[in-house]
Amino acid sequence: MQIREMTLKELYPVYDLVKQLYTELSYDEFEDLVYDMRHMEYKMFGILERGELVCYGGAAVQTSLCHKRHLYVFDLVTDEKHREKGYAKMMLEYLQDYAKTAACEKLVLSFKWQGKNVIQV
């Protein structure tokens, strides 16, 4: 198992996983959005098992009055075939460590739960 930052050359496997979360998102729109988010230092992180991307987290260091300097996790998804194996927990732990090295005070996670947007601090 390997956890690492994904590169722009790996957009196809990232998209294949992300489309499980955002089913209406086309590849072209995904690619445009990823390139648009580069200005905010959006990072793509993946957990790979035997070379297969099984979990993805997209995040950026941000600063706000409410959360001060923090790591904002925009996207977190585990492949349907690999859910209930602890990969999301591993990714969140990795992102917490990344946040500490980036001098962030906290990690903020945005996600959908039962059709509603939720922000967890």
From TrEMBL:
<dbReference type="Pfam" id="PF00583">
    <property type="entry name" value="Acetyltransf_1"/>
</dbReference>
<dbReference type="InterPro" id="IPR016181">
    <property type="entry name" value="Acyl_CoA_acyltransferase"/>
</dbReference>
<dbReference type="GO" id="GO:0016747">
    <property type="term" value="F:acyltransferase activity, transferring groups other than amino-acyl groups"/>
</dbReference>
<feature type="domain" description="N-acetyltransferase">
    <location>
        <begin position="1"/>
        <end position="121"/>
    </location>
</feature>
<keyword id="KW-0808">Transferase</keyword>
<dbReference type="InterPro" id="IPR000182">
    <property type="entry name" value="GNAT_dom"/>
</dbReference>
<protein>
    <submittedName>
        <fullName>GNAT family N-acetyltransferase</fullName>
    </submittedName>
</protein>
